[in-house]
Amino acid sequence: MASVSVTRRFDLTDVKWAKLEPLLPSGKKPGRPPKWSNRQLVDGIRWRVRVGSPWRDVPECYGPWQTVYGLFRRWQRAGVWQQIVAGLQARADAAGLITWDVSVDSTISRAHQHAAGARRDGNLQREPPGGARRSRPTMRWAAPAVG
Predict the structure, then answer these.
(1) Membrane-spanning residues where (predicted)?
(2) Most buried one in 48, 65, 130, 140, CB count within 10 A?
């Protein structure tokens, strides 16, 4: 396993990367090899999510912000992040590191009055929010008469 030097304090160590790497999709396409490794891009995504900064502020050591954001959105649309979380939870559960206790309380949460509705012109939005996919239009076929 090739080791990448940890450039930042919160970057993935070799041990953590060894646990995460098998859960990532293999992107073997013919042609030129990628300039940025998945490890650098994932570290860039982790940095952005941890810090909460705009995508344009991702440090250059993780690659161009457009590349980091593109990988994040591609994997979000494809459901890769959910698969990674499910895989990590399954491994931790098998090792006995997770207790699945559920606690319910009766605390009341209220939303602000402006949080009640959706976008006024949702059809003008360029991309669907989050990992949501646009639904395909359904075609209604006339069912043959049963007789």
Answers:
(1) none
(2) 48
Sign of the Cα torsion 32, 33, 36, 41 reads positive
First to last CA, the chain: 67
The tokens for 33 are 């090899």
Question: What whole-number distance in Å separates Cα of residue 44 and Cα of residue 30?
Answer: 25
pLDDT digits (tens, 9 = 90+) for 52-68: 999 999 999 999 999 99
Q: Which distant-in-sequence residues (6+ apart) come within 8 Å of 69 by Cβ?
A: 55, 58
Phi, psi of 103, rounded to the nearest 5 degrees: -120, 130
- Other C-beta atoms closer than 10 Å to the C-beta of 12 total 19
Q: Hey, how many other C-beta atoms are within 10 angstroms of the C-beta on 80?
A: 17
> What letters, b where the CB count within 10 A reaches 16 and e where it falls short, cover 49-78?
eeeeeeeeebbeebbebebbbebbeebeee
